[in-house]
Every structure is written in C-alpha cells, then in structure tokens.
Amino acid sequence: MGNNKDEYRNFSASEPGVSVFSKGWWLDAVCGKDNWDVVTIKKNEVIVAALPFATSRRFIYKGIELPPFTPRLGPWVKYPEKITHVDQLSFEKDIFTQLINGLPKFDYFSQAFNPAFKNWLPFFWHGFRQMTKYTYIIEDISDIDLVVTNFSYAKKKNIKKAEKSVKIRFDLPAKEFYEHHKYTLAKQGRKIVYSFDLFERMYDAAYKNNSGTTIYAIDEQKNIHSALFVIWDDISAYDLISTIEPDYRGSGSASLLIREIIKHVSNKTKSFDFEGSMIENVENSFKQFGAIQTQYFKITKFNARILRLVKAWNNTN
Predict the structure, then answer these.
(1) Fewer CB within 10 A of the terminal residue: the chain, N end or C end?
(2) Under CATH, which number does the domain 140-269 receive?
C-alpha cells in the first residue's frame, strides 16, 4: 500500500476506468496540489485500487470531504477477471478494508461514491454510515436520434422553438462564462459562490486534458441565452455548471443545449449524467430528457465526540 501522488497522477490520467473527478489533474485543479491525497493498493507494482480524497479543516477538526465541483469520488478497483459473486464480496471486503485503514486520522469523513459502487457493507463494519442519493443518467448516447426520441413532448417543443431564435456555439472563454453566470445569478438576487480563479483552473485543466467544453446559445443581437460547462471521461459526460439568462428562460435554449452537447460528446463517452438533483423541480426537468433515476451512496463518519453530537442534533431538528 502507498500514497505516491505523482505515480497516481500518471496512472489516473491513462486508466480509462477512473472517473474524471478522481483523476489527479482534476484534483489538482479543484483542491490545489497540496490539499488532496490518495490511498493506493498495488499488486506486482501495479495499482489495483485507489481512494482519492480531499483534506479540510473546520476549526480544530480535520476532515475528508468532497472538493468543489466534485460531486462524487470513492474507491476505484480493478477486479480480477471472471470473478464469482462470492469471491467478489470477499475481494471487496479485503480491498475496502485496506483502503479504509490507509486513510489518515480524521474527525469527519463525507464523500459521495460513484453509482458503480454497490457494496458499502465493509464501510459499515468500520463505523461509516450511508445515505442514498440520486442522479439522472442517459445510459447510452451512441444514437442521438434515439436519445431525442425519449425526450418529452415539452422538451422537443422547446428545442424547435429555440432553433428559430438562437445559434449554438462552443468554447465560450472562461471569463465570459463566469461573468455570465455571475450576472444571471445577480438578476435573481443571488451571489455566485465560487471564484473565477477556481473556475479558470477547472476550465484550463479540462481543456488541456481534452475532457471538457463550454457550449452556449446566442441570438442575433449577441445575447447569450444559456450556457453549459460539461466535462467527460470514458464512462460519462457530466453537466457540471449551467447558466440561464432569466429574461430568456422561455426561449427553450436550455433544452437545445442539452441536445447539442449530447450530440457533441456521443463519440467521446458512453452516457450523460445530469449530476443530481434531489430538488423536486430539477428532478422533473431531468427525467423529461429520458434520463434514468440512478442511486449512489453518500458515505459519512464522525469520529470526534462533539461532531457526533452535532450530527445527532441535526438529525432530530
């Protein structure tokens, strides 16, 4: 077992099974190079399992949390070929126990794991707890015509409407995307909660690694109606940040953007993940694109006594 970050950076960059959120270049961008680490397990000098994590501190408490704009992390595991179900459970118990034991001492742990992670029982045996959350995924985007067939009538109507008033463009510069998001939030009486410096690091890293793009809808008067920042890996594309101009919400551009970004990434990855949400009206919108409700686990553990008390109090209030 080891935790050589440079080795993991190189490994994760070339291993197709590692989620974009678990890749070293992404963690460098969203955490800073010194604010994340990884537990790895090797066999014959080759990494066969890894658990990357971001470190944090709240007052005197040391924590392991998700970094900004990183909805899920969790273990990556290389399974033996042709493993039986019984052997897989035993294998997972051993691997996950090693990963857990390799973590540094912490007062609190809070990570959401990827939907592919199914067996959290070894974490339960080590005092962790679980909450089920949901995302919405179009599982196969290889045939864009079939994907659009599964859109609701309302989404198809929005797309036809938008096609008459806006054009789709790619590669909106980082500063323009950020300022548009900031501006549209301000019109709704809200403040942007992330810095341009953070967004620029994410944007630059995604473009440098051929794993992300911005896409936007613009009219003849050069008004941007809506925009998306989407990243991807070999498994899925992820709708990470969306921005909509309130005055043009009725133009249907947001639905058109979804169709066009799915078309754009359909030869780069297998599926499209809307990244949540547990919010009722957002869930209603996502499912109208034919996305499948997919569960994933939020795994937590509170070691410090005062944090356990706070957790208990929050659960009863």
Answers:
(1) C
(2) 3.40.630.30
